[in-house]
Amino acid sequence: MLGRPRRLAVLAEGSFNPLDAKTAVGVVRYRAMDVAAVIDSTRAGRTASDCAGVGGAIPVVRDLGEAAVLGADSLLIGIAPKGGDLPDAWRAWVRDALARGWDVLSGLHVFLADDSEFAAIARESGARIVDVRRPPAGRPVAARRAASVDALVVLTVGSDCNVGKMTTALELERELRERGTKAAFVATGQTGLFIAERGVPMDAVASDFVAGFMEQEVIEASKEAEIVLVEGQGAIHHPGYSGVTLSLLHGAAPAALVLCHEHGRETVRDRDLEIPPLPELVLAYEMAASWVSPTRVAGIALNTWKVTEPEARRALDVAARSSGLPATDPVRFGVAELADALLDVAAARRARATHA
Amino acid sequence: MLGRPRRLAVLAEGSFNPLDAKTAVGVVRYRAMDVAAVIDSTRAGRTASDCAGVGGAIPVVRDLGEAAVLGADSLLIGIAPKGGDLPDAWRAWVRDALARGWDVLSGLHVFLADDSEFAAIARESGARIVDVRRPPAGRPVAARRAASVDALVVLTVGSDCNVGKMTTALELERELRERGTKAAFVATGQTGLFIAERGVPMDAVASDFVAGFMEQEVIEASKEAEIVLVEGQGAIHHPGYSGVTLSLLHGAAPAALVLCHEHGRETVRDRDLEIPPLPELVLAYEMAASWVSPTRVAGIALNTWKVTEPEARRALDVAARSSGLPATDPVRFGVAELADALLDVAAARRARATHA
Question: Labelling B79: which of A174, B145, B152, B155 has CA 20 to 30 A away?
C-alpha cells in the first residue's frame, strides 16, 4: 500500500537488526527494489545484508541528507517507539522529511497526519503523510461468509508474536505464484501493509469489527485468487492479543492453517507464560476454529535462525514427527513442502465440490 | 457513569419493549430512581411496567416537553439506530434537549460531541454531551495480572449476544451486597456503562488493548471488593464477536464463570450457526480460559422469559442435570443458588491461600 512507485528511506535508527526493527527488515526483505537507503547512524557505511541478513547491497546511511543523495523521495518509519508516544528525536526526522517534500509513511499507533505541526509542514511542501494504521471506515460484523468463497483461504497462526506469520504467508505467496497458482496475500499488521497491496491494520480496528473486516478482505481477495494467504496476528494463548487472533480465525474462516513457531522459544515473549507443545497448539487452533468453521493445520513453519543448520534440520524432524505434519523453515529451506500440502488441500476441496 | 444525580428522559421512540430497547429497559430496570420518564410516542400514556415489565409507574410520554413537565433534566439515548448512523428524526430530539440545557447521554458508536451542530448548541446552552462509548486513553496490553488479585473475579459468558450476561452480573452484585459481601460490577457495554460506576466500552476499543483495559478494570475493582462481577460480551462461537469474548476472558482471568443462555434459542441471532448444547459450551469456555489462566463454570443463568413458569422450572432442571451445575433464571427466580456457588468458590480459594 505504498500508493505509488517510491524510493524509500527506511528509518531504523539504532535498531537495524532483525530483532529490533521488524518493520524495516520486512520492508527491506520484500520491497528491496523500492528502498534507496536505510537510516541508522550507528551502522552507517555498512550494507543492509551485513546488518539484517537481507536487502543485499542497499546502503545504511547516517541521515536524511545521505539518503537524499541516493535518490530517496519518501521516509518510511521502520521502527516502533518505546511506550507508544513519538520521541522528540523522531519529530526532527519527520519534520525534515516533510520539509524536503518527501511523503512520510507510518505504521505507528499515533497518527502523524493528526499532528498539527507535521500537517502544516506537509501542506506547505506538498508532501503526503500516509498513516497505514488508520482503521478503515465501516462497521462490518462477520457472519461466516468467508467460509463459502471458492478460493482456498489459508491463515498463518502462531505460538507467539514475532515468530514468522507474515513471512510464512509472503513466502507461500511467492512460491505459489512461481508455480503458476494465482495467490494473494492479505496483510493484517503494519509491516505487511507496507509490503502488500491489500489489508487492514487489525490491531487498530475497534474490537467488534475485526472479524468483519477480515471477512470483507478475504471475500475481496478471493475474487482474483485461487489461494488467499492471510497474515495472522498474536496467538490464541497470548494474554494480550488472543482476541485479535480469534477474530482473524473466525472472520477469515480459513480452510487451512499453517502453524508458525520459533524454535527454542519456550515462553510467550515478555510474559511468564509457557508456550504449549506444537501438537497441543495444533489441537487448540483446530478446536477454536471449529466453534465457527472447521479447519485443519496443513503444516508447520519453524523459525530456526538462532541455531546451526544441522540443528535446524533436527528441529524440523522433531516438529514433523511430533505433529504428523510437513515442517520447514520458510526463510532457510523454502516453503516447497508447505505449498505442496496447500495445493493438496485445494485439490481435495475441488474434488469434493465436483462430486457434490 | 451518569456523572451526577439526574432526572433522565430515556429515549426509546417506537421501541420501548425488552427486545428492541435493550439500553432503555436496562436503565429503567437498574436506575429506576434516576428516570423521570421514557419517551415513546407510540406507547405514550402507559407505564414502564406495562410496556417493558420493569420500572413500575414510570410514565411513558410523547416528547421532551412532556418529560420536562415531569422534571427531566437529561436525555439518555436508549435505542440504537439501524445501520449505525444517526437518523434525522433523532437529530431533532438531540438538538431540542441540548437547547433546553439538558445533558445528552449517548452510547452510540457515533460520538455526538464530535457533531459540530450539537457541539455549538451545547456550548450556547451550557449542556454537556456524554459519549459513554468513547474509548479511554492508553494502550495497555494484558499479561495475566488479573489472575493474581485477591478478589474472586467472576465473568458472565454466554451462548449468544443478548441472553442476560449484564443482567446476571448485576443481579449477582445486588444479591451478594444484600448478603453483606463487598461486590463490584464492571461494565463492558454501553447499557452497563449507564448503570455502573466503573467500566470500559470494550467494543469500541482498538482490538490490541481490549484485554489490557479489562485487566486494568479488574485490578482497580478488586481493590475495594471481595467479589468482582464482570459483564461479558458476545460468545466464543459468535463469528463476529468471539474475539471480544476471548479478550475479556483472558484479560479478566476470572476464577469463575457463569454461563448465560436464553432457553429455546437454537441459533446465534441473525446467523445460521447452531448454538452448541450447554455442556459443550461449558467445556469450550473452560478450555479457552485454560490457554491463559484456568477457570471453571460455577453455574448456569437461563433466560426463560418466553415460556410459562412450569416450563421454565423444567428447563432449569434439564440444564442443571445436563451440566451438573446450579441453574436459575436470575430475573424470574433470583440468583441465590448462583451466589451460594460463588461464595463456595471464594471460600475454597481463601482456604487454599491460607494453606499455601
Answer: B155
